[in-house]
């Protein structure tokens, strides 16, 4: 994908015939140009901004703060923000490769360090490249449920997001004069002083792949590269975004999920077996325990079915980016809360049969409890829930990450209204 | 020339740089502190290995391969093929990342709805899509060059390296 090469013949490193380390000057292709780097960088920077914002939304859903509360409406919001998060993350794979490739000659600048400012600047680029590559690669592996590491993805992904965002901001600050000049300069212009300290222009140094030393050809090369970056980026998105946008599902050959595939037409993340509930969840002796200000009640599945079921069309939107709308039948959580003295003003803690795990319980904020579409679902698509979808009962609520739609529910507890935070 | 880097940035640009660098450093520091305070110490080695590993794999492996491919392959194809091929190689690089993830995901499914497709079929399809994209790019490029006023470039498949 490159046109650059280390020239064999004359050069500053004459006398080192074996595999000379190239220098910035040795990369002659018109692609290695600040105008290209700045334009690809603008795209990548925008992508990082979108990733950071949508990632923060997902983080605040799972780790709520009192000053920023989400509610059940609009039902599709999380599906969109997280779908965008993962789609843009996929798009970053070609964007990052293109950016690194275009700027690659800078790795070989000489002298390698010119004083402490330059050392700090290069160090900041090292942090930027390392953190961004890390974030994109581990993010992609994570959505495919591949975890070849020994750290908590959620905690490290969150911390690294701040490092990536911060080092992008530092990088833009450091490079601002170059960026402004490069973005203002037309792609077609010849290169006289390229801002990378190279004094050679296209007229003086024909690029080996160009076959021609006209500025026109350099412009064609740059435009061609940017068009290729756009095509590769859109291509990656086109072949993956169908996991979120159902009409595009037939195209999504590279996506980790097909939103149409799974028991009852819905993908499964955690299975009953993995959760350690395969037996307890299928046991007819299962009872739902309700706890609230008025005491405790215990309901069997037939008791719940006899309460009369409400229907809600609510998407399951996974943190991994896939989402699918489904039709659920169940009892409204607020009706269950009222059975034990709850009102619409209190949060409800949801506990699963799962013996452990980070997501064995969740807290439904009062705004969600009050919503018509927040159900303790018993049926999916007109059938009893599949065991892997949370039989005998699971929570579904609009605008919630899938990991908080607790499955195999064993207990609902009306939490005393807290003086701060959470209350609607 | 407007695109030459100003020797002395305007005061506004200087101020903006200072603000960006300080603000960015603050965000990085917050990220570092978050990692320090929330990631258990036993996980640091793994995280730092992955952090450094990406840079090493790129700088020492992917980028040199890309540079060599470009230096060896692109001069030997007609000019109209160069940009589409470069794009194709870029797309292939991106596909390689996704393919590794997909194959690994399919190898150890926690549930059959994870990577429900056959990775071999999926990756072959993606390769064909890239090939079609390259050919489309060549067609567009050839048409552009014909329409352009400049005389047609001399390069032909298998022709001698371009003039220096």
Break the fold down into its secondary structure elements and pairings.
The complex is a heterodimer of chains A (424) and B (164).
Chain A: H1 34-62, H2 77-103, H3 115-143, H4 153-184, H5 215-238, H6 272-275, H7 278-282, E1 288-292, E2 295-299, H8 301-306, E3 310-317, E4 323-332, H9 333-339, E5 348-352, E6 361-364, H10 366-369, E7 375-380, E8 383-384, E9 394-396, E10 409-414
Parallel strand pairs in A: 1-10
Antiparallel strand pairs in A: 1-2, 3-4, 4-7, 5-6, 5-10, 7-8, 7-9
Helix pairs in contact in A: 1-2, 1-4, 2-3, 2-5, 3-4
Chain B: H1 11-38, H2 44-73, H3 79-107, H4 119-147
Helix pairs in contact in B: 3-4
Strand fraction of chain B: under 5%
Q: In one word, what is the shape of chain A?
A: elongated
Rg value of chain A:
28 Å
* Helical percentage of chain B: over 70%
Characterization of the model:
The complex is a heterodimer of chains A (424) and B (164). Chain A has 424 residues and is of the alpha+beta class. Chain A is 39% helix and 13% strand. Chain A has a five-stranded mixed beta sheet. In chain A, helix 1 (34-62) packs antiparallel against helix 2 (77-103) and helix 2 (77-103) runs antiparallel to helix 5. Chain B is mostly helical and 164 residues long. Chain B has a domain at 80-146. In chain B, helix 3 runs antiparallel to helix 4 (119-147). The relative contact order of chain B is 0.08. Chains A and B meet through helix 2, helix 3, helix 4 and helix 5 of A and helix 1, helix 2, helix 3 and helix 4 of B.
Briefly summarize what is shown:
Chain A has helices at residues 34-62, 77-103, 115-143, 153-184, 215-238, 272-275, 278-282, 301-306, 333-339, 366-369, and strands spanning 288-292, 295-299, 310-317, 323-332, 348-352, 361-364, 375-380, 383-384, 394-396, 409-414.
Question: How would you describe this structure in keywords?
Answer:
heterodimer; A: 424 residues; alpha+beta; Sulfite Oxidase, Chain A, domain 2; 2 domains; 5-stranded mixed β-sheet; disordered N terminus; B: 164 residues; 71% helix; disordered C terminus
